[in-house]
Amino acid sequence: MTTKQTRLAQSGLFPTGKVSVTNPPAFVTTTVVFPNADVLPTVTRESLVRSSGGLYENFYYGGVDTPNTVALARMIAEIEGSSSAVLTPSGQAAIVATASALLRPGDHVTVVDTVTYTTRWYFERLRNSGIFVDYYPPDANESISDYFRDNTRLVFMESPGSFTFEVQDVPAICREAAGRGVTTVLDNTWSASMLFDPFQHGVDVSIISLTKYHAAVAGVSLGAVVLGDPELHERIKTEVAILGMHVSPDVCARASVVLPTLSLRISHQEKAIQNVLARIQSRHDIKRLYHPSLGTCVGHAIWRRDFRGANSLFSMQIEPNDSKRMRAFVNAFKTIKIGYGWGGPTSLATAFQANEWRTASYTDANGLCLRIYVGCEDPGDVADDIEQALDASAPWSNHRQAGEDVVVREQ
Length: 411
Ligand SMILES: *Cc1c(COP(=O)(O)O)cnc(C)c1O
Known about the structure:
The protein is an alpha/beta fold and 411 residues long. The chain has helices at residues 4-9, 45-49, 67-80, 91-102, 117-126, 170-180, 230-242, 249-258, 262-280, 300-306, 323-331, 379-393; strands at 14-16, 19-21, 84-88, 108-112, 132-136, 152-158, 183-187, 205-209, 223-227, 286-290, 313-318, 337-338, 348-354, 367-373. Helices cover 32% and strands 17% of the residues.
């Protein structure tokens, strides 16, 4: 059995007749023409979910599947360590499709307090559909059963959590949920299918935003719902087709071109962030760093137990911690760019307000923090940039020329 890195490197191989090509061509079409009426597949609910034995197995209407979607879904399933995956137009759509397939009015879902804000906004909205939604703290383990009710159908995890990276005890939560017949859903985007094996830890449904590490370097938006169980696969695949969440074959082909370098990118970026953290962690003007590899991170011991490594996102709280200083700090970056999202080639800084959305638990990072995504640049340049921006924005800075003030705008 070859490693993930080898399988990924060859994941673009695509048979065309007797030969193969190393990158799949995009089958940009919605219409499939059949040689005669006898081989035209009858479209039934079952035909949407037929297990795919060959690349063309589900190729009868381009909206539902194309050779590109089938090949990409199969590769995502394989690197997640499961039997099947259903692609969606975004990570957000993967969450929506999962909830729509698995929750009915009157059901209860409990969601980790540290989910990314867009996930939270969606769950807030679900309350309008008669679904009961509440939040549990990220350090819940066996104690998750305290948050289960008679009507609990689903427990939603995101580990590590967004922005402050609390690592959840996924196996403990899954054990408790299995005993109660509660379906376990994990947003596994952080691990990029490389750092954590959801199905070996008891997860029923793994959700990924492929828009991040998998395919941000291609600039595409895509998501996946990854399943270990054929019955769950059938429900999700049907839901995605019925909701009209079709994905473009062109976009899938672009993702298939960058997927073979995923493992390389992650291993470069893992080393890069260790480099950056080592350079800045003793600075007096950084109050706190957030990254699962640091002993101060909530769930650090669980990360060591369950994960193979860490990605290249970290957050920091600086001192003094006010919005003027933060604005000056961020505006002083030269190499690091300012923006949302992550997983692409470019290092990015995103300011956030810790505890802004949380209701079940709070971090000690009060106030403004900064998340930094370390991209594919030289890590020395990224660390230099953080240091020079801290120096340039410090109120006591003597790096500034006399008479030259940092330009800050009031919020
Ligand atoms: C970005 C992100 C999402 C949403 O993904 P999109 O593809 O942007 O819709 C969901 N979960 C996590 C953890 C994310 O980082």
